[in-house]
Each structure stands twice: as C-alpha cells, then as structure tokens.
Predict the structure.
Amino acid sequence: MGELNFAQLWSPIRLTIELAFITTILLLIFGTPIAWWLARSKARWKEAVATVVAMPLVLPPTVLGFYLLLLLGPNGPGGWIAGLYGARTLAFTFTGLVIGSVIYSMPFVVQPIRNAFEAFGDRPLEVAATLRASPWDAFWSVAVPLARPGFLTGAILGFAHTIGEFGVILMIGGNIPGQTKVLSVAIYDFVETQHWTEAHILAGGMVVFSFAVILATMMLGRRYGQQGR
Amino acid sequence: MRARLSWLKLPMAALASVMIAATMSTAARAAEVKVAVAANFTEAVKEIGALFEKATGHKPVFSFGPTGGLYNQVTQAAPFEVFVSADQATPAKAIAEGHAVAGTAFTYATGKLVLFSKTDGLNLGEQTLKDGKFTKIAIANPKTAPYGTAAVEVMQKLGVYDALKGKIVEGNNIAQTYQFVDTANAEVGFIAFAQIALKPGGSRWVVPANLHKTIAQDAVLLKTGANNDAAKAFIAFLKGPEARKVIEKYGYGFVD
C-alpha cells in the first residue's frame, strides 16, 4: 500500500479543476450564440440543431469516446491540427480532453441559457430597439442581464458535469499523470489497485462537491424564481 | 374497479407463465460457468470456450478486463467461478486471501510481449526504443496489467525508461493498449503477441524473453465455483490438449 502521497492526490484534482474551468469558459463562449440562435431563430430546422447539441445527454460516453479517438487521431481532423505544431494526435493530450469535454457538456450549458433567453420573450428586445439600441447593444445590456440565472445555472452545471466526466476521458486520455489523469480516472485507478484510502479521500471529496453544487443550483433557482414572482 | 383489475390479470398471468418457463428451461439446460479472463487472453479463450461448449455442453460466460481490476471485483463477491489471470501473483493472492481454492492454480500459458506498430515495414527493435523517434508509446497500466509491468521492465533493462517516460500512454488493460496502437494514436506500443498473432500487417518485434520476467499466466478455481461441475470441467479443459492447441496457435508458450 505504501504511505499516502499527497502529490498523487493533488495532481488529478488540480488537473480536473483546470479542465472544468477552461471547458466552462469555452462553453459559455460557444454555447451562448448557439443558445441565442436556438431561442430567437424561426428556422424550421433549428430543433434539429438543438437535438444535435442535446445528444451527448443520451449517447453512451463510449460512443463519444470512440468517435473522438478516431477524430482526434492521426487519420482524423485532430491529427491534422496536431500536425500544425508537429504533433501527431490530439488524443492523450489536455487539448483533446478539452475538445471532448466541450462536446460532452454542451447540452448542460446551452439548454439553461436557451431557456433563459426564451423566458423573457420578444418584448424587452423590442423596447430596446425602439430606444435605438443596436442589436449588439440590446444583447449585452438587455438580454444577457435578463438571462443571468440561465448563465449561472449553465456555468455551474457545465463545470460540474466536466468534473464528473469519466468514460470519454478513459477512452481518449491514456492515463497520463498531470495531463490526462483526471479525478475520476485517478479514483478508478486507485480502486483497481486496491488503494482504497486514496480512493476514499477523492471519492468522498466528490460526494461533498456534488452535494454542494446541486444545492447551490437549487438555491439559485429558488432565489431567482422568487424574484421573478 | 373490478373491471380495471381484470384487464390487468391477463398480462400478469402471461408474464408469470413466461417467468416460470424461463426458470424451468434454465434448470433443464447444462450448467453455466462464469469466467473472469485477463484481456490478453480474450481471443484465445473465446475459441477455447466454443470448443468447451461443444465438448461438454456447459456454457462458459466470459468477463474480460485487467487482471488487477478483475481480482478487485472478485474480492467484492463478483459471481466469477474461474479466474484466468495474466500473472501468477494474483491467483496466489486469491488463494491466500481466501477467494480461491488452494491447489487449483496452474500455469496455462506463458505470454510473449511484442512491440507493435500499425505502420508496415518498420524495423522495430531495441534501437527503436533507444532512438525514441516517436511521440507516443502505449503500454498497459503497469499497476494492474502484467503486460504493462513487463513493458516497463523492458524499458528499464534497456536503460530507456526515463527517456521515454514522457511519451508513455497507458491503456486501462492490454486490449485498450492495442486499440491505441491500432488507431495509430500511438505510433508504437507494447502489447501481447497473442493479440496480433493471427493478424497480418503492421510491424512487430517479439521482445526477447530475457528482457523481462517470464509472463507466466495462471488460472485458478474460485471458491464460488468449488461446487460447480462446469467450473471444474472448464479448468480441466483449459489444461487439455484441445485448449493447448488453441493457446499455441495464439503464440503463447508453456512452462513444461
């Protein structure tokens, strides 16, 4: 068994937080225009786009992991991108995990933001337009503040879901300490090798974390719900 | 109210009769044996399983995984009855910790380690490792998979482990390791020879046996299977000539 090695515990925690943080930022950047378009567009095929975004909710992580492994690999677009800076594949890299996580957690961010955009309807934007606000201005000074609860919920859920990601990372990560060995994979490793003390510490921490996150989202929902009433 | 219940009765009765029929047919069938198998032996054991079923009428059900992971499940009362490990240490531990029947462990094969690349026509060898002209080298998790341990031993023995450490990617078991190499995400990888013994293509270097400890692979009867004739029959079959022929075909060796 050996002694407890705290570096061994800390490295996956730090890596996971980094991954979740970067993923959440990217999800807000890419997810917001998608959510906006889904909320405002009249296009008939927009629900098809919404479906594609939502698909990671029901697809087994193995399906995503399998396709990602091929897409990130030397024979896929990921390999081409990696080639730009002399690497061969995006699999087994932190970048690869970020790409996977963005796809995997996308519905958790887009859906709440879309709901928030839809909730206030056309009226506030029409008013903004009559006050001669440009669409860009109206978006930032009217839509975004009104949709704040949606952004918060989306960000929290996207962050938390990325922290809890396992299957996809197991399939494309390669278990590299400090690069792709995230929390869930480290726990798996500790359990598989009968290092249950370490597994308990990390797993117990995750239980506390998940409790805090869900509680926070629920309380947020209550607070904004009451304000709205 | 009564009318509502009565329309429920028919499907309930049908369901019950199906369940009874299912139970009876299981009882009438030949026995089943649940076998936990180290991933490197996957292809070979499937063939052996088919032969076993034909010969005895017993039905083997296989679960594949890394040796360490499978044993972990055994300690938590997994329903496996036979454990086909990729090493000797784990079955010995299973006996010592009271999960397996003492005296039933035996070496069914010795494994060969191979350095493999999906690219054809490479001249793989010690020099490949010393030059290190690749970005990723895949190995099985050395903490749970004996072929991973052997891979690390080889690199250490050749004095290249420290140099290559940053290029190592770990598969959860030897099957995933092969998949990393097979998808060319890793240019080279240490896998079990058995995985590619029957597949043409790629480049391979069978690692000389003196570069790592012998990968002696033991199987053992677990206590859960001590009273299952099918489990005992499977162990016997695994030692027999038919199984041996398959094991040989996949490039494994034998201790005797």
Chain B has two domains: 25-110+215-249, 112-211. The CA atoms of residues 45 and 241 of chain B lie 14 Å apart. Confidence is low (pLDDT under 50) at residues 1-5 of chain B. The first strand of chain B starts at residue 32 and ends at 38.
